[in-house]
Structure formats: structure tokens, C-alpha cells
From TrEMBL:
Keywords: Acyltransferase, Membrane, Transferase, Transmembrane, Transmembrane helix
Name used for this protein in its record: Acyltransferase 3
GO process terms (BP): lipopolysaccharide biosynthetic process
CC annotations in GO: membrane
TM region(s), chain numbering: 26-45, 51-71, 92-112, 163-180, 192-210, 230-246, 253-269, 275-295, 316-334, 340-360, 388-410
Superkingdom as given in the UniProt entry: Bacteria
Taxonomic source organism: Mycolicibacterium gilvum (strain PYR-GCK) (Mycobacterium gilvum (strain PYR-GCK))
PANTHER family given in the database record: ACETYLTRANSFERASE, ACYL_TRANSF_3 DOMAIN-CONTAINING PROTEIN
GO MF annotation list: acyltransferase activity, transferring groups other than amino-acyl groups
Residue ranges annotated for the Acyltransferase domain, each copy included: 28-356
Coiled-coil zones: none
Length: 428
């Protein structure tokens, strides 16, 4: 007789097989969920006190997947395509990031009009992916970042990533060109790349240590003080051949050990001294272990990361990250910190994240010229249809946003209209 446990195991196996065929890591999607929920909870409530290290987890993930994609393209075609890579990054990042920028500036004009000019300037720096240098030069203290109350402060990691990815493909292209000219084997090509990446990682880590000791606020936003975290992910991508041979019984041990390190970082790390070096080493090592454990084959006994809820939260993690901080700051300007405030923040943030993910991020990422032409023809002939998942997401987003509005309407502030308050200062 087939039990529910057997059905669950078979469904889980089918999801894993589909993900493997699509080169889609379910465990890493779950890791993204852990990262974004840690960031959201920390900035909203101050707990866990080290939840902000979710940003460091995102750096490792980005370094791994982007480098793996570049290496795969180089191996297939003899050279990474810079045009394809940069167009892909633009489609992946820019539409959703720009949409949230516009919404945030518009909302600021409504609820914080006195701050509109400053937020407009922040938006310009965020749009051109130099927000990290802007906030560093403005003297924003990472340990008390909310004193600036900029609803766009959270765009600094996107700036770090995109600055890194402007240079990174060029480095890989240069070494690949040498490899082709000298007829290197694949192993020798990867070895030279690993040496180059290793040098960058060591130099960046050393710089981060110096900057943390002398100017921790600047170090927090400094691109080169963060490059080592992306570089760790890149080293994992270069080692996939070796990592794919990890014995299956060891994989869940590595994965759970990585999660334990991340959990320890959530609890132990704070916004005081020693960040990003040495304390960022803890979440970076944890993320690296989780990623390494799933190379070639995802680990068994890892339902925490691979369940449907975790993987879906991972799917919307970018959109949720984009909207969480503006919602926290802007609602704090009109609401007291009561149960109504927290209910409004959570429901509005998730509602907006669903809308941004399904109606901006996904369509922009998947759009092609041929697809757009076909969609136009379908609409002309009345054949256009919306996928069920998109319909469900639209309804869910509407319900969550409506609930947030109701929570605000029921709050005393909606009647009493007290003076605006600043949100609790988050750690970095």
C-alpha cells in the first residue's frame, strides 16, 4: 500500500529530477529564502541580530552561479560572450530594481515629502549601481544606518555585485583567450583561473581586514572589501569537477553543517566591530558548504531547504529584498510600532514582492523578441492567456496588499495622525 510518506518522497524526487534537468538548484533556492528572511526579520524587528549577514550569503550565491554560467559558455563556445552576459544581467536585475526605485520615490513624495530631494539623489546613484560609494561618502554608519532613513539604502549590495560583474567576465575572457592561443587543456585552464581568483580573494580579504580595523563604516560598503565573498562562490564554480565527486552520504552532513554556521552567524554576529572581517567568514563558509554539498547531485535529507515553501520564497527572494526596506521605512513614517505596523509591513512587503516577481521580474527575464512578437499576434487574434501561477500570484498579491491597507486603517495612527517616527536602527 502506498502511504502519504511514499507519495511525498516520490513528489520530492520528481521535483528534484525536474530541477536537475533545468540546472535549477532547489537547495540553493532554499538558501536564498533563509538569507532574505534573515535580512527582513533583522531589519524589521532587530532579531536575529545577525540576520543582516543574509547579504553575505547572497554574495556567495551570486559569485557561484555567475561564474558557473560564464565557464559553461566558455567551455561550449571557446569564449564567454560578454554581450550575452551583460544583456542577461540587465534583464535579470534592471527591470525589477527600476520598478521598485520608481515606486519608492513616488511613495516618498506622498508620506515623506521633506525627504523627496534626498531620496531622489539616492535613486540616481542606485540606478547607476554606485549606491555603495554614495552612502559611504555620505558618512552613513553601518551600525546605525536607519538614522539616514533612506528607503533606498538597501541598494548598496546590488551596486557591489554589478561593479564586480562588470570586471569579472573580462578577467575570465582574458585568461580564456590565452588558454585558446596556447591550447591549454580544460584542467590547466581552470587551474590558471583558480590561481587568479585565489589571488583576488586573498587580496580582497586582506584589504577588508585592514579597512575593518581602520574604517569599519567604509569597509562595510567598499566593493573591494566585499569581492572576496563573491570570489569564494567563484572558486566553488571552478571546483565543480572535484565537488561533484563528494560521496552521497557526506552531502547532507556538509549541507546541515553549513546551515548550522549560518544559524550561528544569525545569533552571534552584531553590528559592532569585526565586520566584514572576520565575522563575515562565518556566513560565507556556511553558504559555501551548502552550495558545495549540492554540486552534481543535491543532498538527501535536506527537506528544510528543498520543500515547496522554501524554494518558492527563494524564487521571490530578489523581489522581496527589493521591497522590504522601503516598506519598513515608509510605513514607519506614518505608523507607530504596534501589531498593526508589523502586520502591515509583512503583508504589504510580501504582496508587493509577489507582484514584482510575477509581473515585472519574470516577464522581463524570460522575454525574447520572437516571444514578444508572438504575444502581440496572440492578443490580436484573441489567443492570449495568462498562466495559472500568474493568476494565483495576482490574487495573492491583491489580498496581501488589501490586508495591509486594512491593518493600517484599523491602527490608531490612521485616526490620531501622530508625528512620523523613524524605524529602529538596523545593524549593517
Amino acid at each position: 500500500m502506498v502511504t502519504r510518506v511514499d507519495q511525498w518522497r516520490e513528489a520530492s524526487a520528481r521535483r528534484r529530477r525536474r530541477a536537475e534537468r533545468a540546472n535549477h538548484r532547489l537547495d540553493v533556492q532554499g538558501l536564498r529564502a533563509v538569507a532574505v528572511l534573515g535580512v527582513f526579520a533583522h531589519f524589521l524587528t532587530g532579531w536575529p541580530r545577525g540576520g543582516f549577514v543574509g547579504i553575505d550569503i547572497f554574495f556567495v550565491i551570486a559569485g557561484f552561479f555567475v561564474t558557473e554560467s560564464l565557464l559553461r559558455t566558455a567551455a561550449d563556445t571557446g569564449s564567454p560572450s560578454l554581450r550575452t552576459f551583460y544583456v542577461g544581467r540587465v534583464r535579470r536585475i534592471l527591470p525589477a530594481a527600476t520598478a521598485v526605485l520608481i515606486l519608492t520615490v513616488a511613495a516618498t513624495a506622498l508620506v515623506m515629502p521633506d525627504d523627496l530631494r534626498d531620496v531622489g539623489v539616492d535613486a540616481l546613484f542606485a540606478f547607476f549601481f554606485v549606491a555603495n560609494w554614495h552612502f559611504a561618502a555620505s558618512g552613513v554608519d553601518a551600525a546605525s544606518a536607519a538614522e539616514s532613513a533612506s528607503p533606498l539604502l538597501h541598494y548598496w549590495p546590488l551596486a557591489v555585485e554589478e561593479q564586480f560583474f562588470i570586471v569579472w567576465p573580462v578577467l575570465i575572457l582574458g585568461i580564456t583567450a590565452i588558454a585558446v592561443r596556447k591550447a591549454w587543456t580544460d584542467e590547466r585552464w581552470r587551474a590558471h583561473l583558480a590561481v587568479a581568483v585565489g589571488v583576488v580573494v586573498i587580496a580582497s580579504l586582506a584589504w577588508a581586514a585592514v579597512q575593518t580595523a581602520s574604517s569599519p563604516s567604509w569597509a562595510y560598503f567598499d566593493t573591494f572589501a566585499r569581492v572576496w565573498e563573491l570570489g569564494v562562490g567563484a572558486l566553488l564554480a571552478l571546483a565543480v569537477g572535484t565537488l561533484s565527486r563528494i560521496p552521497d552520504p557526506i552531502r547532507p552532513i556538509l549541507s546541515w553543517t553549513g546551515l548550522t554556521l549560518i544559524g550561528a552567524a544569525f545569533v552571534l554576529v552584531d553590528g559592532g566591530s569585526g565586520f566584514p572581517v572576520p565575522w563575515a567568514l562565518l556566513p560565507v563558509a556556511g553558504a559555501a558548504l551548502v552550495i558545495a554539498a549540492g554540486v552534481g547531485r543535491e543532498p538527501e535529507l535536506q527537506g528544510f531547504l528543498r520543500n515547496r515553501v522554501s524554494t518558492y520564497l527563494g524564487d521571490i527572494s530578489f523581489a522581496l529584498y527589493l521591497v522590504h526596506w522601503p516598506v519598513i521605512v515608509l510605513l514607519a513614517a506614518v505608523m507607530d510600532r504596534s501589531v498593526f505596523y508589523y502586520a502591515s509591513v509583512v503583508t504589504l512587503a510580501f504582496g508587493l514582492a509577489l507582484a514584482v516577481h510575477h509581473f515585472v521580474e519574470n516577464p522581463a527575464r524570460d522575454a525574447t523578441v520572437q516571444g514578444l512578437r508572438q504575444a502581440r499576434e496572440d492578443r490580436r487574434h484573441g489567443l492570449h492567456h495568462t498562466e495559472l501561477s500568474t493568476k494565483i500570484a495576482g490574487v495573492a498579491a491583491l489580498i496581501l496588499i488589501t490586508f495591509s491597507v486594512i491593518s493600517y486603517a484599523m491602527s490608531p495612527e490612521a485616526i490620531d495622525d501622530p508625528a512620523p517616527i523613524a524605524p529602529t536602527a538596523p545593524s549593517p
